[in-house]
Design goal:
single chain, alpha/beta, Rossmann fold, N-(1-d-carboxylethyl)-l-norvaline Dehydrogenase, domain 2, 2 domains, 10-stranded mixed β-sheet, about 50% helix, binds NADPH dihydro-nicotinamide-adenine-dinucleotide phosphate, binds ketopantoate, 2-dehydropantoate 2-reductase, NADP, NAD(P)-bd_dom_sf, 2-dehydropantoate 2-reductase activity, EC 1.1.1.169
Length: about 300
Amino acid sequence: MKIAVAGAGAVGGYLGAFLKKAGHDVTFLARGKHLEAMKKSGLKVIENGEPMTVDGDFTDDLTAFLDAELILFCVKSTDTKETAERISELGNDHAVILTLQNGVDNEEVLSDIFGQERILSAAAYISSHIQEPGVIHVDGVTKLVIGALHESLVSFRDNVAELFNEANIETLTRDSIMEAKWKKLLWNATFNPLAALSTATVGEILDNKELRETAENICREVLLIANKNGIPLKEKMFTITFKNAELARGHKPSMLQDRLNGKKMEIESLSGYFVKKGRQLGVETPAIQAIYSNLLYIDS
Ligand SMILES: NC(=O)C1=CN([C@@H]2O[C@H](COP(=O)(O)OP(=O)(O)OC[C@H]3O[C@@H](n4cnc5c(N)ncnc54)[C@H](OP(=O)(O)O)[C@@H]3O)[C@@H](O)[C@H]2O)C=CC1
Ligand SMILES: CC(C)(CO)C(=O)C(=O)O
């Protein structure tokens, strides 16, 4: 399949490399030093200590996306609208867009720009980061859960899942993809903003009485909002979220990594979204609101 990766960073570069290795025609969109390094020496992925390097079309020119059949949409949510609008202006009306981003708001933006019937979405259980320009470091076990926003895309969804499985990326499909995305978001909304603000790792949050209490309060607020918003997340998701956190004690959530690297943080998708939803739905969000306002201040 002809695949283009919009944002060949930690997630897009990693997945694109495996698809390229499996024999697909992959174009990688990147910029700056990361792009320069890939153009010079290829894209290196080190997964659990195992290195591999792939060649490919590395570019900052979006016209390379003109004949893509599948676009892996992997920019940070702060870049979603601008990147999507630029892709849309190309006039490639047949490509399907698969968002692998955290949060549940990117789907709304992408649907507005491309139409729901062209959007697949995935909950991406991946722990990766750009170790240095041209090099992506991946830890642990990767899993994707993919779904279609529109039923006309279900058979394409299945093809895409097969394509990832054949490329050794474990991939499941779900009919209720937004429920799967909310389940992952529950974890991200609980730990990413709090870690970014406090600079604590997941384990440090769990071990600190006050931070843990704040994380629990955030998790409860997100659960309430999900249910009021028609996403039936059961009470046991609270326990599961903290159990999963125990398995990721050493992890610095991506939002903390962004702060430490001086990059834009996904504050709106992982925090502000709930403040706004809470207001719409009549759910109080004091814990989220406090973290959100602090992050906005830091960001400014
Ligand atoms: N990293 C992880 O472990 C996980 C991340 N996610 C989610 O996946 C999404 C992507 O995250 P991640 O891969 O970590 O982010 P990265 O910053 O590593 O990757 C995004 C890449 O896209 C590039 N980019 C953005 N816009 C453009 C453009 N217009 N032209 C060229 N290049 C562009 C960025 O360049 P630049 O750096 O210059 O902006 C960057 O290299 C986020 O929503 C994140 O929350 C989900 C699961 C796990
Ligand atoms: C926890 C993790 C790595 C899960 O994929 C993540 O989504 C993040 O750090 O933002």
